[in-house]
Amino acid sequence: MNTVKAMKNAIVCLILLPRFFLAAIMLWFLDFHCVRKRVFPKMKEQEGNIVDPPVCISESNRMFSWESIKAVWHGHKLDFLKSAHLGYVAPNTEVVQLRDQRCNRILDYAKEKRPLILNFGSCTCPPFMTRLKAFQRVVQQYADISDSVVVYIEEAHPSDGWMSSDAPYQIPKHRCLEDRLSAAQIMNREVPGCLVVADSMDNSSNAAYGAYFDRLYILQDGKIVYQGGRGPEGYRISELRDWLDQYRQSVGNSRNVVIHV
Ligand SMILES: *[C@@H]1O[C@H](CO)[C@@H](O)[C@H](O)[C@H]1NC(C)=O
């Protein structure tokens, strides 16, 4: 059994190595002042929009370190091994409610056939936090046709790991469920009106959805109908909004058809 596991690990490593090296080299380059000065203003010009402001990284943050390499590897591995795939059954993992610390399952939050938005992230993830207000607006705008849950996962930039001075809060790695719940409470205060739950301490939701550093999903009828890209690069509130917009139109159209008949 152990040899099977080791074999599987070795295969995963081999497949992931090329893209991991590419990411590591990128991080290394970004530590050079001259590269950073050129790359970031370009990103600002290209992707500049209100809903998804470009990722900004302050001068003081080092990109290439043992901690950052470990975090990037962890993210790649979770993404590769996740069980959530577009069009397939949504993993029904366990999450913890903040109010009463009760364990629930993700699909418990789905209401009949209404789409359920899942927003995975943490307070130490700068792109997640800068887009939180835009997320809240989208959720409110489409509240008549969809529901949403924010799932608090492990810290993207814990203060005792790959810390980031751009994060609005400095929070160390969660050592127990209480740590995670109190971090999730901070998030809860940032998004009044949104439901915030915490991933369990075995990180099963994070693993099933490949959610680290941050990620968006939409579930409907127990299936995954939208899968956002791996954060931070693939994390886009505008994609979420576009999906909901299309959905609203299709629902409206089918209603019209019913009326005409
Ligand atoms: C889950 O993540 C936390 C970090 O927030 C870590 O301390 C813990 O060991 C992880 N649990 C498992 C089972 O990997």
Brief rundown of the structure:
This protein is an alpha/beta fold and 261 residues long.
| Class computed from helices, strands and strand pairing | alpha/beta
Q: Unreliable segments (pLDDT under 50, ≥5 consecutive)?
A: none
The molecules bound to the chains, other than polymers, are: 2-acetamido-2-deoxy-beta-D-glucopyranose
Straight-line distance between termini: 61 Å
The largest beta-sheet arranges its strands as 2-1-5-4-3-6-7
Sketch the topology as an H/E string, one letter per element. Answer: HHHEEEHHEHEHEEH
CATH architecture: 3-Layer(aba) Sandwich
Largest sheet: 7 strands, mixed
Give the CATH class: Alpha Beta
Number of helices: 8
Q: Which helices and strands appear, and what pairs or packs with what?
A:
Layout lengths: L1 H29 L2 H15 L18 H16 L12 E4 L5 E3 L10 E6 L4 H5 L1 H10 L5 E6 L24 H14 L4 E5 L4 H6 L5 E6 L2 E5 L9 H24 L1
Parallel strand pairs: 3-4, 4-5
Antiparallel strand pairs: 1-2, 1-5, 3-6, 6-7
Bound molecules: 2-acetamido-2-deoxy-beta-D-glucopyranose.
Question: Could you walk me through the main structural features you see in this protein, from its secondary elements to its overall organization?
Answer:
A seven-stranded mixed beta sheet has the order 2-1-5-4-3-6-7. The model has no long low-confidence stretch (mean pLDDT 90). The longest helix is centred in the first third of the chain and has 29 residues. With 261 residues, it is α/β, with parallel strands linked by helices. The radius of gyration is 19 Å and the shape is globular. 46% of the residues lie in helices and 13% in strands. It has eight helices and seven strands; from the N terminus they run H-H-H-E-E-E-H-H-E-H-E-H-E-E-H. A hairpin with a 5-residue loop joins strand 1 and strand 2. The protein has one domain: Glutaredoxin, CATH 3.40.30. Helix 1 crosses helix 3. The site of 2-acetamido-2-deoxy-beta-D-glucopyranose has 6 residues, from loops. Belongs to the iodothyronine deiodinase family. One of its GO terms (cellular component) is endosome membrane. It is found in: Endomembrane system. This is Iodothyronine deiodinase. Pfam families: T4_deiodinase (PF00837).
